[in-house]
DNA sequence: GTCAAGCGTTTGTCCTGACAAACGCCATGC
DNA sequence: GCATGGCGTTTGTCAGGACAAACGCTTGAC
């Protein structure tokens, strides 16, 4: 863009706005795939501002030659960043860093991790950790027979000593052992992963409603106060339902924040 | 899995659970990329149940040979479906269709499209369509000077004759012409796209709060009723902020539904 | 009977090479 | 001055081949 009129002798390519070539290299003895090494370095460069927003990445051919890689490998690296929304490709123009600050593109996150990432030191109080007969709604969500025994975990999550959310989770019986002590020390998803379950996808529904008397009592709100609600059915990679969650959050103390990408 | 002990003479591969080979073909005269043609056919087969959940796709080599394609092309097709969460690959095992029913993975959707897709025939009443000086919050979101003129669109969206949401959108001045008549006939995002803007990403925040007197009046609710709120800053592919929206939804009549994928 | 090693299968990674399509710039013509 | 066509640049698509790594089953040893 700024270098359009120049002759193209042996341009070192892949530069910053300042023409300073970006230090990139790959380690062929490492077990980490080459495209992944490159992707990580590029992502780090974007995050640290060494690749300014709008900066053009040099063309793929030169970049590959400079790194001693083939073009498909370089493309694979860039593609992962494009998928993350960090870069945009334009035919005849090049690949450039996106201007807007992109963060996480909405993962299957747990409240525990969210709070911890925000430096809030979450605390969990397990109100119930037992089995009970499945109601019609729970049975339908988990794909078990109505009235059959299912696992129920009910937790109160707080941050800074104030209650934030009331979490009710139903799980198929015998899926993974859940000890109350562990539930109070970490999040449910971490325990499931540690139990050998590979989470794959989830279907979520986010809404709002007024607090019931019981919820208001536990959450230190007035009855009728607005609450943010989230229902979620989670599947593992074999397609099994592994969890059905019904969560309510204090509207004054929690919002869902996330970044969306437009599918091209 | 079901065919493990068999000798592997000239197995036709890529079958259904019933060993009936799936009809697949590509048209080399079409301008549509080959990998995309294949991806579409596979996705359609999954959706129509011709590829049952859990079914193994034949190995990539044979599949490529059967279609007269190269393996990278077949892989590219499958990869798009894996990215969508429709399939799972396992080394040494194969690629299989995911069990759980996957829908859209949460797009940058507009309320208008959502309602229309649900067959609800949305109606829009434009309450305001004007310019006004930017407040501090709006100025910060849009990246303009505080007090500078910005475009404001305020709309009431209804379905089945009942109000559903109150939508307030601020736009940079002169970005795209917005006629009231067009705003009542379609959604804001469609108009922006039609105006040559390529939407890229958005940062969203979803929460809840009690209705103010004014909101209750417009939405036919009681003051203090729980409302679902959404704030969104939308960027185009050059990184410009193209919209700042503050929406409130009647909690009893609207929830956000979406599907999440776990990043592997 | 149980556990470990071996082996075939399948995906993961990487290479080289080639042509097509879209974009922006420049020169040409009016 | 302005529209238009040509041209170089860059990404998009596709082919064919090669080896490595992970998985599951079978075989063998104890």
Describe the structure.
- Chain A has 264 residues and is α+β, with helices and mostly antiparallel strands.
- Chain A has 8 helices and 10 strands.
- A 6-stranded antiparallel beta sheet of chain A has the order 4-5-6-9-8-7. In chain A, strands 1-3-2 form a 3-stranded antiparallel beta sheet.
- In chain A, α1 (34-47) packs across α3 (71-83).
- The longest helix of chain A is centred in the first third of the chain and has 14 residues, at 34-47.
- Chain A is elongated, with a radius of gyration of 24 Å.
- The structure holds a DNA duplex (30 and 30 nucleotides).
Task: Looking at this protein, list some descriptive labels.
3-stranded antiparallel β-sheet, 264 residues, 6-stranded antiparallel β-sheet, alpha+beta, disordered N terminus, homodimer, 10 strands, 31% strand, DNA-binding
Number of helices of chain A: 8
The beta-strand count of chain A equals 10
Strand order of the largest sheet of chain A: 4-5-6-9-8-7
Structural class of chain A: alpha+beta
Cα end-to-end separation of chain A: 24 Å
Mind describing the biggest β-sheet of chain A? 6 strands, antiparallel
In sequence order, what are the helices and strands of chain A, one letter per element? HEHHEEHEHEEHHEHEEE
> What is the arithmetic mean of pLDDT of chain A?
82
The low-confidence runs of chain A, each spanning 5 or more residues with pLDDT under 50, are 1-19
What overall geometry of chain A do the principal axes of the alpha carbons give? elongated
Largest interface between protein chains, with number of residues from each side: A-B, 50 and 50 residues
Q: For this entry, what is the oligomeric state of its chains?
A: homodimer
Strand content of chain A: 25-35%
Helical content of chain A, roughly? 25-40%
The Cα radius of gyration of chain A reads 24 Å
């Amino acid at each position: 863009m700024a270098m359009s009129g120049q002759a193209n002798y042996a341009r070192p390519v892949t530069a910053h706005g300042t023409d300073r070539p970006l230090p990139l290299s790959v380690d062929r003895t490492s077990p980490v795939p080459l495209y992944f090494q490159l992707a990580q370095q590029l992502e780090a460069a974007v995050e640290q501002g060494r690749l300014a927003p709008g900066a053009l990445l040099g063309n793929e051919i030169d970049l590959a030659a400079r790194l001693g890689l083939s073009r498909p490998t370089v493309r694979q690296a860039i593609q992962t960043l494009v998928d993350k929304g960090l870069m945009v490709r334009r035919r005849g123009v090049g690949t450039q860093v996106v201007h807007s600050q992109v963060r996480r593109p909405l993962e299957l996150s747990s409240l525990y991790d969210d709070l911890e990432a925000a430096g809030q030191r979450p605390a969990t109080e397990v109100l119930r950790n037992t089995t009970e007969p499945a109601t019609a709604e729970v049975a339908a969500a988990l794909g078990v027979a109505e009235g059959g025994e299912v696992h129920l975990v009910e937790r109160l999550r707080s941050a800074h000593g104030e209650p934030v959310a009331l979490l009710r989770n139903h799980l198929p019986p015998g899926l993974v052992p859940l000890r109350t002590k562990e539930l109070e020390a970490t999040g449910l998803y971490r325990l499931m992963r540690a139990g050998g379950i590979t989470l794959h996808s989830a279907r979520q529904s986010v809404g709002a409603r007024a607090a019931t008397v019981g919820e208001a009592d536990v959450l230190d709100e007035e009855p009728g106060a607005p609450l943010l609600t989230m229902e979620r059915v989670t599947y593992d990679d074999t397609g099994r339902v592994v969890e059905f969650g019904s969560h309510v959050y204090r509207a004054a103390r929690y919002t869902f924040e996330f970044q969306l990408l437009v599918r091209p």
